[in-house]
Task: structure prediction
Amino acid sequence: MRRYKVSIIGAGMVGSTTAQCIVQKDLADVILLDKKEEVAKGKALDIWEASPLNGFQGVIKGTTDYTLTAYSDIAVITAGVPRKPGMTREELLGINGDIVVSVAKEIIKHSPEAIIIVVTNPVDALTYAACKALDLPRTRIMGMSGMLDSSRLRSFIAMELGISPQNVTAMVIGAHTEKYMMPLLRLANINGVPVSKLLQKDKLEEIAKRTRLAGAEIVSLLQVGSAYYAPAMAIAEMVEAILRDERVIMPCSVCLEGEYGLNDCALCVPVILGKEGVEKIIELDLTPEEMKQMQEGAKAIKEMIGCMKI
Result:
């Protein structure tokens, strides 16, 4: 039986840690590609040398050669310039737009059936750019945003209550920006108990604010670089859901075609992930205020999209 194959473009901290997570789960063979060949090969070799300890049965290789990515089931794009202290996601657009589009075209050239997960920021605009540049079904291109933001929200709720994060159900949707991100705390619960019954409104507002600023908080603490452990695990969960056809509900950035009354943009919404990629987009019953925020987020993403040549 053929093993699955996942190619990761970009061997920085997010890309290499994603490779490690996939290998530790023994989900697929991994190709770690980067313009710096020694970095890609060195990190791949380091991960491979742990295979006797983590039970990995496949192959992991570092390279600069896209031909080695051929017949990938999934390609993860992490290549791009990392966010620096004080830098907004919007400022990253001009630098990373061309990178993601060119990488996506190379991926499909060698793996025409691959499902693409965009991680590079600003992820919503770049997910849309990849969709338009490749002219593929939107089901096969998605952005990793909501899984990370939702994990952060769940962890902050658990931290405040002193409970296991696994007991927390919570979701973040909307634009992956500090201003328009939408932590849906009214729907959050602890094993079915609404979180609003366990935490005061002011505390919930603090948690929502911290979730929106979570990326910037990590950047500020690190001083050099940005988060990579939580993003890598979020990506690995998406990869696992697709390869194992789990059909689980996950919040992902996808191109919208009328859902939530929106078109010509990509936003994070709950979807069912399975072997075909985005198998269904779920439309939540949002409040008027939440719908307004979705629309404002879409407007912001469209402005970013308008700055790109697609």
